[in-house]
User: Fold this.
Amino acid sequence: MKIALLIGILCLGFLLLVKGSDFFVDGSAGIATRFGIPQLIIGLTIVAMGTSAPEAAVSITAASRGSADIAIGNIVGSNILNVFIILGIAAVIVAMKVEKSTIKYEIPYMIFCSVILLLMGLDGKVGMLEGVLLWGAFLLYLAYLFIHAKKNKEETTQGKTRKLWLELLFIAGGMGAIILGSKLAVDSATELARIIGVSERYIGLTIVALGTSLPELFTSVNAARKGNADIAIGNIVGSNIFNILFVIGTTGLVTPVPFAHKYILDSIVMIAAGIILLLCVIREKKLTRPGGIILLVCYGLYFAYLCIQP
Assistant:
């Protein structure tokens, strides 16, 4: 009886994720069209920060309760999965055009942020000073986005559009459904795994890691499927930047964040994920199916490595 209930909750969670991401992408694209904001900027800001809500909530809440040691693993694992799994799946479904600015600025900045996090963690923690520096880099990133949006403002569409309050309702309602769906899916799947007898280690490596990235997964795949590739790519790149600069930065301001030695290799993999993504898109200015397959294979190799660790 309990298993049937958990399966029902799991299905409800996935339904909320699917419909929530649908509304969220529609609302975000509508805002971009209404105000002439490039969809890439919407993906790098509203969508990226919105879909990073689970990571932010988990890390900052954990820090405030004295469990900051989970923050680094949560963010590094999520960032790796975002690039390898989410963009990999989205690219296998449909080829995604990548803007020149994303190749020239945003992806390199994501790689730069990953390197900075690794260097900051070599002494075993990310403290208040590092938190301030990460926040400074976050404000610089927001300033760049503001300038980029102003320089590349598109013509507003005078055609048939929804009312502004309805677009905002789509975004807020969609994000709420995504966060609730993510929580229901992770909690029920974790409990199911425990009942079946799967170890805590593998639950953490699979269900929980994927769980906090479910919003990015459904939002990016939905955006790619609807032809809003700028939102799909921008969502992941912006989310990864946001995870490091805002989430770890804010957590570091609350309390020193332990950076365990075992996360050094994972951080190197996170940096490699950004470099591999850049190599996949730099030539054709798009992420194609072969590129998506490469990303998925890379995650498979990384996961195999995790599984053989004691």
Summary: The mean pLDDT is 80. The radius of gyration is 19 Å. The CA atoms of residues 187 and 237 lie 27 Å apart.
